[in-house]
Amino acid sequence: MTVVVGWTADARGRAALVQGAHVARLRGQELVVVNATTGTAVVDDRFAGASALEEVRRLLASLGVDAEVRQPVVRDVTEALLEVADEVRATVLVIGLRHRSPVGKLIMGSTAQRILLDARCPVLAVKAEEPAR
Amino acid sequence: MEALLEGLGMALQPENLVYAVVGVLLGTAVGVLPGIGPAMTVALLLPVTYNVSPSAALIMFAGIYYGGMYGGSTTSILLNTPGESSSVITALEGNKMAKTGRAAQALATAAIGSFVAGTISTVLLVALAPTVAEWVVVLGAPSYFALMVLALIAVTSVLGSSKLRGFISLALGLTIGLVGTATGQARLTFDNPLLADGIDIVVVAVAIFAVGEALWVAAHLRRRPLEVIPVGRPWMDREDWRRSWKPWLRGTAFGFPFGALPAGGAEMPTFLSYITERRLAGRHRAEFGKGAIEGVAGPEAANNASAAGTLVPLLAIGLPTTATAAVILAAMQGYGLQPGPQLFEAEPELVWTLLGSLFVANTLLLVINLPMAPLWARLLRIPRPYLYAGILFFAVLGAYSVNFQWFDVALLGLFGALGFAMRRFGLPVLPLIVGVILGPRLEEQLGQALQLSQGDVSALWGEPVAVVVYVVIAALLLGPLVLRLIPGRQEPEQLEDEIGALEDEVRS
Prior knowledge:
The complex is a heterodimer. Chain A is an alpha/beta fold. Chain A has helices spanning 11-27, 50-63, 77-87, 102-107, 111-118; strands spanning 2-6, 30-34, 67-70, 90-97, 123-127.
């Protein structure tokens, strides 16, 4: 029985992570953080480097949650996340959403939508904190 | 001098200026991207030469060549992954500097050093090339033959880890160059009329550099992404300037002659420059390995100086010493221009415009690189499948446009597979491409020499210059063996070991 967080090294990833840690602590369950990449670009901003990873470990420690961080290099990020959720028999899958323009939705597939439709466990979707205007 | 000013004037004309800008932008971009280099880019652009004037195309290619040297350093410093082989050494100190928060200074010393070295070396090039051309023009066919043999041997045996692999690659190249009809005889055409005219160099170059590399990357597509070190606008303070200017000059002194030698290339002088700077560092010695600015300034100056140096034998003798120079030579041949001493007499306007444009390209590069280095690093976020799909598309288009027949596309696939296999088995590409280009010209000179002597082979060593060149070739081939036999004299090996250790350090 585990809480799985789909984490990206940006604002919405952080929101998902904080929420996931919260849920895990409330339920007294373990936390698995998945930060996947396709590894096709030389640089992927959403894939955490050493410093971002260190920061997250400290954040989780300060929240008092025991977490395992996985960073797989995979063909399909969505599939990888769902596989991990199946593998650890997740009770809930936490993901971060971002605002998308209609054109953006038209051109690019939505990772979030595919997770919502394909996941076999409840999905908790979190939005990044909007910057104050 | 007057000719140079006229050339500068020509280079500054709007049309030529546009090609120079396009060249340096493209060059910087491919320099930044690991795996895509100036040789591949120029090869992909060879078909452009069918529609563009020779001076415009050469200005663009020279811009790409110079730009590639600039761009490679950005990736080395911010990512610890050299964008080009000439920037491997830059990563040693450059990335350490970036990690300690001095990325801006590392980028600045690389860009300004490249500019200083590029400008000095281009001045040297302008001064030297016509003189060399005048000196070479009186040589007969036997001497040319010897010089080309020297270039082939040097490119094959001096660079790279294994001489055997080098010679295998050279043999492949010479064989490809043999295909076609010479003196009425069909060779290696397999009775195929489409092969009777030989294989177009555009097809071979595009296949080896673009298709081979694309297949190689596709085979290693998924790698753990790297972290870019964030950086602001590059700048240096007084202390950095004080520590950089001498390494710039010393790097130039290493780079230019090495580039001009037949076994040139940029790798060797950057290694030597780094080792020298470390030795001369004095009280900054302890900083080496932790991010010493001298270790960035020297090698970066060296690789740009060598790029200019490469143009001396290319323009004055018609000998290419690097992959990019080889492809540029192919472009010149495509225009029917005979590179070498005659070029200065037959096409003075073209040559001086090209030389003038080098100063323009160098200045443009400083302007676009100094403020925009962090912007260029953004190119690294492009997913490789998009990039290589584009490259393959242009490769096929280029191969097809040579003669508008499917046969060339089939050849492209064949040689692309060869290029992939060579990368897989560690065969260097440079001897192959130089072999393909120089092979037929070598034969031409040999034929001419034997014709004049009416078949007397001894004519081949009948000119003093030829004899000297053969002695140099013998020294090149036998030197390492002899040195190994003399006990206590292990210096070349030591240097090679040191280079190997440095390379390991960068890769780890």
